[in-house]
């Protein structure tokens, strides 16, 4: 009976009929991306669709939705070839930045090679930062175990960091951090909402996909040119 109900709901949804989104929804989210971008979106979706129980899995790899029994995934990076339905919602960049106070004291680098003369904040030492046609190899002045720790240190003027744009966007928009070397950035990475069933997806899957696509395309984290 549960299977027949699911089939009926999927057919009604595909035909444009009103069906209440309900049941368990299993989603996959990158850990860091979820912390900085997805958490408020999940809360908003839960408020709008109270009959859906969201079961979120947080990992940093590309999942197999069929094998792992997942309904929807939000993925950062180029997608492998698959039969999944993918809707691009934005792109993220790898950004170098520092606080205005630090730059007023140390000066602004004009080429990645000049970063060797700066205080670098990184998660590993020595530092290996790839740029187009150049790889920076240098020592970290400050080593931080977490991205947020590195961001906090940079905001306080401790040095230069390099990170994906989505955890940095609020600090860049407020002027707490200043973007450096934009002409030397790597190509941006796409962000997709991925799911399995296409037009035959259940109402809970379609409701979540539509909600996420709309919210993410308007999210300020993806407005960095």
From TrEMBL:
Classification via Gene3D superfamilies: 3.40.190.290
- Signal peptide span: none
GO BP, sorted A to Z: DNA-templated transcription
Q: Which organism is it from?
A: Pseudomonas fluorescens
The segment(s) forming the LysR substrate-binding domain are 20-216
Q: Which family does it belong to?
A: Belongs to the LysR transcriptional regulatory family.
A GO molecular function assigned to this protein is: sequence-specific DNA binding
Know the name of this protein?
Answer: HTH-type transcriptional regulator DmlR
């Amino acid at each position: 009976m549960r299977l027949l109900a699911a089939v009926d709901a999927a057919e009604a949804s595909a035909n444009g009929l009103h069906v209440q989104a309900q049941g368990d929804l299993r989603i996959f989210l990158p850990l860091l991306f979820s912390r900085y971008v997805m958490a408020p979106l999940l809360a908003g979706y839960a408020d709008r669709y109270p009959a859906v129980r969201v079961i979120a899995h947080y990992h940093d790899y590309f999942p197999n939705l069929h094998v792992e029994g997942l309904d929807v995934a939000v993925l950062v990076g180029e997608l492998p070839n698959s039969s999944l339905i993918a809707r691009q919602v934005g792109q993220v960049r790898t950004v170098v930045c520092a606080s205005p106070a630090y730059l007023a004291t140390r000066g602004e680098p004009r080429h990645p090679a000049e970063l060797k003369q700066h205080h670098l904040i990184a998660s590993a030492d020595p530092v290996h930062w790839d740029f187009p046609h150049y790889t920076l190899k240098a020592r970290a002045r400050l080593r931080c175990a977490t991205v947020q720790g590195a961001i906090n240190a940079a905001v306080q003027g401790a040095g230069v960091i390099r990170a994906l744009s989505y955890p940095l966007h609020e600090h860049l928009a407020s002027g707490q951090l200043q973007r450096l070397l934009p002409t030397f950035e790597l190509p941006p990475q796409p962000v997709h909402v991925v799911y399995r069933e296409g037009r035959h997806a259940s109402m809970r899957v379609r409701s979540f996909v539509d909600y996420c696509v709309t919210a993410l395309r308007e999210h300020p984290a993806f407005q960095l040119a």
